[in-house]
Write the structure tokens for this entry.
Amino acid sequence: MKTTATIAFMGLLLLASGRLLAQQTFPIYTGTVPDSQPSAVQETSVTLANGGVRISNVVQPNLTAFLPAAGTANGTAVIICPGGGYTRLSIDSEGYDVAKRLNEFGVTAFVLKYRLPNDESQVDKSIAPLLDAQQALRLVRQQAAKYNVNPERIGLMGFSAGGHLAAWAGTQFARPVGDNVGPASVRPAFLVLMYPVISFSDTLKHTGSRDNLLGKTPSAAQIRQYSNELQVTAQTPPTFLVHAQDDKTVPVNNSIVFYQACLRHGVPAEMHLYPKGGHGFGLNNKTTKDLWTDRLRNWLDANGWLSK
């Protein structure tokens, strides 16, 4: 048996470390992308010196599916929203790498390349990311049988600004955005929020994320609407949070206020705070031997999401 091989199959099939890993990339919309307008904006992809990939100016949002090894899928799926301050997507370290780790749990993972707010290519940049996240939830739910996924076990994970998007989708599902909402539910079964931007309040905001999504002079009503800790209800999905106390980019209190809101509304929540680690550590916080993915696996298992 070959240890590595590349085979075309609805995208790309990779045989690595003796097991088959399927990657299938497909658009989330057919036809015209909603909330879009003609422009000269073109997607750009930059590979950093360390091999990291950053994508900007997304105009055609898509999903890349990562499938667990044959026979190991347990029916749970997670849609991953990479971070990047609503200006770029850290699609590898906060997307593809995480998807592969989730596959080891038997979880089917979908990395969402969502549109970043852009006045040139979007009619209303303040709703474009949420449109894409909600459509991704609809699409995975509609295609659940194809991927051997339980449509009631589709969660949403987000990192940094992607965490804002995940929390946004997890608190606004009762009022889907866009004109063609359809009957499919856009409520995630659970949320995984990694050093998330939660609040757009002056004291907790990540300035870049708020400015990119709402502009430099948002109204008080907009700030409240986009501050996810103020939108939690008893229907908010169970939530898992991870943050570092010394995060200088997104203050740790973002996670804390969301956890407190969950407590007030009786939403099951688990939070892991590390003394150090800074921001954007992805899979591995190098300041500790503890792996947050082990904590996540335990949480998923305790809630029955790893059972077949």
About this structure: The chain has a mean pLDDT of 92.
